[in-house]
Structures are given as structure tokens and as C-alpha cells.
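Quick one: RWD domain-containing protein from Macrostomum lignano, C-alpha cells please.
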Amino acid sequence: MKLSDEAEQELAQVESVLKPLPNVKLEARLDTTLRFQVSFSAKKTLILRCHLPEGYPASRLVAEIRSKTLSQKLTDGLAQLAEAEAEKATGGPQVARTVAFVHNWLRDNPLCSAAEEIAEIKSRLLDKQEGDRLKLLQAESRVQLTAAKAGYRLSLQLTLPNDYPESRAEVELLSSNLPSSVSRQAVARSAEIARRCVEPPSYRGKDKKLRQQAAAWKPSPCLLPVAEFAFSFLRSCATQRCPVCDKPALATAAAATATASSVEDPADQLEFVACGHLYHAGCLKAYMTSPPYSPDGKPCRHAGCGQPVCHERFRTSAKVLESRWAAQQAKERELAEVADFFN
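--- reply ---
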């Protein structure tokens, strides 16, 4: 199909017109089709094909967008928006306008690199009846997650870098009415999940299979894993009971009005053990320092768990604990005998 002189003149100038856009590259022209690459990062990269129909520019061009990294739903929707933009320029130059529109859309919507994760969070994780919320701040490339359960609330903010998911997202606490120790734990564990998604595991052992796995490691998106953790963490904290005293791990829902900066009774602070279960600090201390003792560690008392309780505050060996307990019992007997003597 032969293009009009007006169309040929437009195409001859399109590369120079798009020169101010460094993220756009004209890759090829085949008859009436032009192929452009628009790239802001390894993830935010797409191919835009502009097909010029018979009668162009009196007829609107057809936009086709494909990407190996962005979802088809997103690229199909963007193609429709691009064609709507081209429609506005029917009768005049459309190619440069369409390419610039796609370029600006990618630039102004940095969270498109996490579109699939955001869609899954909305469809699978949010419980709006409880008060869960997801807020997107496109201009700042930030995602705000709010988990709620039984009157408790935890709000985290993730800032996604331009080259997400190759680089690490920053996690910070926005607000919470959980005890401060619990909020700190939530932020620290969320940040650790984000770190593991972008930093390769260091393995220098001799196991061939593990070495191959470490060598084949690639960065992965962290928004969905962090969201899964945040929602499950809050719901678990709000519903778990201390297995020693059988009281709620957190205070009743009426106490949810307390702020994260409120003063806590040290014995009522929550302690997280390696298996992920919660204990009151005082209850855990009483359980770990009282007999019976086992060389393999005391089992978690949460129903169905039974894993050894691992906690940095309780690393003393069973033999030492047993000798301490025996000494304490002997001291108490001596004091009792003295009391009986004076009575």
C-alpha cells in the first residue's frame, strides 16, 4: 500500500520529532508499520507497533503493544488508550503523538511494574469488611497497605524504585495501634522479606545442588510477599492466644485505641519465637526457666506446633538451667527452714 505524500513526510520526520524522548527508540519500519521500543527499566519495557491503514492520516492508525515483562491486560488497555489519543489527531500527524503518549504514560505510572501484584492483592488479600485498604501513590511510586483485624490496625508503606523489581523496595511504618514491640517486628520482618527478594543467598558449601540453586537465583518482586506477610501477621497477632496463660496474646479489642508509643508492661510484651508463635514475655520466661528441661529444647506449646522454642534470650543449655533450678530450690528450702525455726 502506497502512503500519501503527507504521510511519507510525517514518517521522514518522526525520528527527529521523538529525539527529545531518550527512552524511545525507532527500531524498524516495514512498509506501513513502524516499530518502537519504549523502555524505562528492564521491567518497564514494551514494543509499540503503529500500523498505518489505507487513507492515513484521514484514518486513525492502529496501535499494537507487546511486552515480555508487563501483563497483557495492561498492554492491551494501554493500546486502547493510545488509539484514543491517535483518534484526536485524525487528519494530521498521529505517530509521534501516539508514541509520546505511551512514553508519558509509562513515565507517569511507575507502579505499572507491579500491576499484577497489585491486582492479586486486591482480589485475594483485602478484607474490606475488616477495614483492609490498599492505596496507590503513582506520582511517588508508593504503595500503602493497611491491614485491620478485631480493632487492630497496621499500615505499611512501600516505595518502589524505578528499576523494581531488580532493586529493593523501601518499607516503613505509617501508623499502627499495636504495641510498639509488635510494630517494630512487623516492619523488620517486612524489610527482611524485601531484602531477600533482591539479594542473592550466599552459599559457599560443597552441596552441588545448593550451589546450582544459588547460581540460578534471580531477583523477584517483593510487593506481594510483603503484603501477604503484613496481612497474615496482623490477623495472627489479633487472634492468637498465649499458650502458657491461655489469654489473648494482645489485649482485648477495646485496648486497640492505645497508640504504638504507649508504655507497655514488660511482662505483657509479646515475644516471637522462631516458629512464628506469640508468647507474653513473662509467660515465656516462666516456661523456659522451669522444669522439665530437654537437651533438644522445650517444645512450643501452641496446639499442633511442637517445634523447639528458639529465642535469642533463652540460649542457656538444659544442664545449666537444671543446676540453676536445683540451686534455687535448695535456697528456698533453707529460707523455709529458717522461717520455721523462728516460728
